[in-house]
Amino acid sequence: MTSPNSTAAETRKLRTRTALRSAMLELLAEKPFDQILITDLTNRAHVGYATFFRHYQTTEEVLNEIAGDEIRELLEMSIPVLKQYDSSVSTRELCQYVFDRRSLWRTLLTGGAAHSVRAEFIRQAREWSRMAGGMETEVPVDLGTVCAAGSTIDALAWWLERTDSYTVDEIAAFIDQLIITPFIGDK
Higher confidence at residue 2 or residue 115? Predict the structure, then answer.
């Protein structure tokens, strides 16, 4: 049985973490990640400086948690579509999702956390691939997943540096033609 005190503590913990994550997202829309200080986060989230350290050790830890959740949401949205329809539909949804959150994704993919975000994207894509199973390709599925996921992240990073040059539909077509279709083939 859960005591009322532990439930209240869990609620408070969740509320604080949510406030810090929301503060990070707001600040990322205003300035580069490397300029965000712990005091910026705590002031924006209306939490004490010492409270921050009960939940996170660094601003990078907050960003990594956000990145992991964003990647999970992105894959949960796009992979089922990829399996059911033609890959261009899934690829377009993926690109639209990133475009709608471009200030965050630009930070994740072109800033100091880019390497760890890329690695996390590949890790989660491999996990999805293992769970899905049964896909037949001309190359080992795990190798194809690593190459496709890594190349997709690289293409998105390239695009986010020049979003004024290419539309969502254009980058989705590039990714589908260069990366996805060669791996999974035409459906």
Answer: 115
The enclosing domain of 24 has a CATH number of 1.10.10
**Residue-number span of the structural domain to which 77 is assigned:** 61-184
DSSP string, 147-160: HHHHHHHHHHHHHH
Q: How confident is the model over 73-124, as pLDDT tens digits?
A: 888 877 766 666 678 888 898 999 999 988 888 888 887 778 888 988 999 9
> Does residue 1 have a pLDDT over 60?
no
| 2 φ/ψ angles, rounded to the nearest 5 degrees | -90, 130
- Report how far apart, in Å, the C-alpha atoms of 124 and of each of 54, 67, 111, 149, 177 are: 27, 11, 20, 9, 22
Which residues does 14 contact at the CB level (< 8 Å), separation at least 6? none
> Considering the entire predicted model, what is its pTM?
0.76
Name the token pair of 157. 């990073």
Name residue, tokens 């986010």: 160
Report residue 38 as tokens: 């712990």
Q: Which residue has the higher pLDDT, 74 or 47?
A: 47
State the Cα–Cα distance between residues 78 and 142, nearest whole angstrom.
18
Q: At what angle do helices 59-84 and 4-30 cross, to 10 degrees?
A: 90
Give the separation between CA 1 and CA 187, rounded to whole angstroms: 51
What is the CATH number for 138?
Answer: 1.10.357
